[in-house]
Amino acid sequence: MSIAIQTTHLTRDFGTVRAVDQITFEVDSGSLFGFLGPNGSGKTTTIRLLLGLLEPTQGNSSVLGYDPISQGDLVRQNCGALLEHTGLYERLTAAENLEFYARVFRLSAQERQTRIKELFSNMGLWDHKDETVKAWSRGMKQKLAVARAMLHRPKVIFLDEPTAGLDPVAASAFREDLQNLVRQSGVTVFLTTHNLNEAEKLCDRVGVIRAGRLLAIGSPDELRLRNGNPYIDVVGSGFSPEVMRKLEQHPKITSVLQQDHHVRVQFEIGFDSSSLIPLLVEHGINIEEIRKGRSSLEDVFLTLMEEENA
Ligand SMILES: Nc1ncnc2c1ncn2[C@@H]1O[C@H](COP(=O)(O)OP(=O)(O)O)[C@@H](O)[C@H]1O
Ligand SMILES: [Mg+2]
Question: Rounded to two decimals, what is the model's pTM?
């Protein structure tokens, strides 16, 4: 798999404020990468550095193999971005907006037609394409803004807090359509968010940033591992020493804890814990309840923030 974005000790100061502090990471081509952090943690500054809109104080980066400082134009030609402003014209219809930007990007008439149709369909906006944008909900506008950023078939798109200000239903619809688009086009997405739930649902990998520093990076599963393996809690009766031994010796099970009628079985990520049910039943255990438990990314996030404060 090739690498779309790469940074080495990327750093940016504003006066005495270090907005981005020695950040090193890679983003695989075709993946959806989330930069997760609270307000003021350096997310937007990182995007601006990667797009060559700001120069780093130290360190460097490369986007699609280009250096954003010396080859900023090439970076911007091959990337799309949705930053603070959507750049949409409220008085035009959605179709007119895309038509306008498609001309700015110098797409041919034929290409404009197919591309605009494709994007409207992918973003679930086809039926609304002739409506004036002014009348639209924020969620629809954000989707149109993503379509706009995708017109010239960029290989990478940067989305800065694309669901900020959307209600939960709109945010969820937005995420679904974004995932469709990514699957269809193979575009690499670099997205920032301060919403854990969103990072967890949407992203293949997540970098957690705070006060300019990258605290952790990995898939949501890998990050969760920091707070311990997933587990199931079994409530029931008949836990014999024999079945407890069976569980303990299971190659995928990492720990078994018993407290009266309650057994917590912790296992490796990726193990299908439902396969334990026949084993328990076979050994005569009377199961009253089974609950799946795993630490949420939120727990991990909170732990990381606490570690940082300590
Ligand atoms: N142009 C600027 N001038 C001065 N300080 C800035 C500028 N841009 C960002 N900062 C500061 O850098 C830090 C990170 O900001 P930002 O990257 O916008 O964070 P985020 O996008 O995560 O909310 C903040 O302390 C912010 O005040
Ligand atoms: Mg920001």
Answer: 0.80
Give the pair of three-digit tokens for residue 234.
């079994």
Ligand 1 atom with the shortest distance to the CA of 41: 22
**Distances, alpha carbon 15 to alpha carbons 8, 12, 38, 67, 104, in Å:** 21, 10, 21, 24, 36
Quickly list H helices, 67-161.
72-78, 94-104, 109-122, 138-150
- pLDDT tens per residue, range 111-146: 999 999 999 998 889 999 999 999 999 899 999 999
The amino acid present at 17, given as its one-letter code, is V
Question: 308 pLDDT band (50/70/90 cuts)?
Answer: low
* pLDDT tens digits along 178-196: 888 888 888 999 999 988 8
Residues 261-273: pLDDT tens digits?
Answer: 899 998 888 899 8
C-alpha 266 – ligand 2 centre gap (Å): 38
Q: How far apart are CA 211 and CA 38, in angstroms?
A: 9
Q: Which residues line ligand 1 (CB under 6 A)?
A: 14, 17, 19, 37, 39-45
Tokens of 1: 């798999």
| Unique residue bearing structure tokens 């969620």 | 139
Confidence of residue 293 (pLDDT cuts 50, 70, 90): confident
Closest CA to 291 of 241, 246, 239, 233: 233
Structure tokens at 21: 């502090």
Domains annotated for the chain, with CATH where assigned, are: 3-224 (3.40.50.300), 229-294 (3.30.70.100)
Strand ordering across the sheet containing 188-193: 79-82, 156-160, 188-193, 32-36, 205-210, 213-218
Query: Minimal CA–CA distance to 267: which of 299, 300, 234, 301?
Result: 234
